[in-house]
């Protein structure tokens, strides 16, 4: 059940500014995320959420208080917290005998649950167990999705979109080679296993203009197992992915480019009568008095012939 939104009218200048900031925007910044602890979280799930929170910082909030709820049965608490924190993404950790070391990742749309996917952390190696240099917080990572299963399975297809939402930061127009310092690798198999790895990109000398690229694992290292999923309907998902009119490119009609990049335009005009076409008035194109006399005689003869035909018909 979605959170009921009341129509609020601002009474102060500051209140108006707050309400305007909550309105939908054509170009949104990085999505905020909250991490919650569900029913009886284990030490592994707590550390795992903390590591994902470290990768997501500073666009995230980690709530250490335990909450006795099951998101797949009652998601009202998540919707309430996402509305309060202005967050579009959430992560919940829990633990039980039936579902050990359980992680639920999801997102909201219009303050209601859009997608929820449940993952089990079979193997986990924390970021603190890798004794090497880490990357700076807030760095935009390079996302790698390995394996054909990401495009064949519907749940994995939505999970790929969810991971992209989680680690997508500000939109960039150009990329500098030295700015690529962090890489996140997601490898999916046919049996529903997802291998999550984090690497630091090292650019070393190669004796050429292009540097030699090496990857150093910095953690966390997680082996996920796909469990349950609660996906949005096609209509709701299509509405959530709708592009605003302001961002749609304006197509220019009848303009094209050839193989050499030359811009070509096509002009459509109506049918023209060459006899009535207005040309430049010059002395050489004027009719002589004899030509004018012949034209008048032809018109007179045509009128006489028309009268004779009318009289014969009568």
From TrEMBL:
Keywords: Nucleus. Residues 31-235 form the Brix domain. InterPro entries: Brix, Rpf2. PROSITE patterns: BRIX. GO terms for molecular function: rRNA binding. GO terms for biological process: maturation of LSU-rRNA from tricistronic rRNA transcript (SSU-rRNA, 5.8S rRNA, LSU-rRNA); ribosomal large subunit assembly. Pfam families: Brix. It is found in: Nucleus, Nucleolus. Its main location: nucleus. GO terms for cellular component: nucleolus. SMART domains: Brix. Belongs to the RPF2 family. This is Ribosome production factor 2 homolog.
């Amino acid at each position: 059940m979605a959170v009921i939104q009341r129509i609020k009218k601002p009474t102060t200048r500051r209140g108006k500014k707050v309400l305007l900031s909550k309105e939908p925007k054509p170009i949104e910044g990085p999505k905020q995320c909250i991490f919650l602890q569900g029913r009886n979280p284990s030490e592994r799930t707590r550390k795992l959420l903390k590591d994902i929170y470290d990768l997501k910082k500073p666009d995230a909030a980690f709530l250490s208080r335990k909450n006795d709820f099951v998101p797949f049965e009652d998601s009202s608490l998540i919707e309430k917290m996402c509305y309060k924190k202005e967050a579009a993404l959430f992560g919940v950790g829990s633990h039980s005998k039936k579902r050990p070391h359980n992680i639920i990742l999801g997102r909201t749309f219009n303050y209601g649950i859009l997608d929820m996917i449940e993952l089990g952390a079979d193997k986990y190696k924390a970021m603190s167990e890798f004794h090497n240099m880490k990357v700076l917080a807030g760095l935009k990572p390079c996302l790698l999705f390995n394996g054909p299963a990401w495009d064949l399975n519907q749940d994995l297809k939505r999970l790929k979109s969810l991971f992209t939402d989680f680690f997508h930061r500000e939109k960039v127009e150009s990329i500098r080679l030295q700015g690529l310092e962090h890489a996140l690798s997601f490898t999916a198999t046919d049996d529903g296993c997802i291998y999550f790895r984090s690497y630091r990109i090292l650019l070393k000398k190669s004796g050429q203009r292009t540097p030699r690229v090496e990857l150093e694992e910095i953690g966390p290292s997680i082996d996920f197992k796909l469990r349950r999923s609660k996906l949005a309907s096609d209509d709701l998902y299509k509405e959530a992915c709708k592009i605003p009119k302001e961002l749609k490119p304006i197509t220019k009609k009848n303009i094209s480019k050839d193989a050499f990049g030359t811009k070509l335009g096509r002009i459509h005009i109506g049918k023209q009568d060459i006899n009535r076409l207005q040309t430049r008035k010059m002395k050489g194109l004027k009719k002589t008095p004899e030509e004018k006399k012949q034209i008048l005689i032809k018109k007179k003869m045509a009128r006489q012939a028309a009268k004779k035909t009318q009289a014969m018909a009568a």
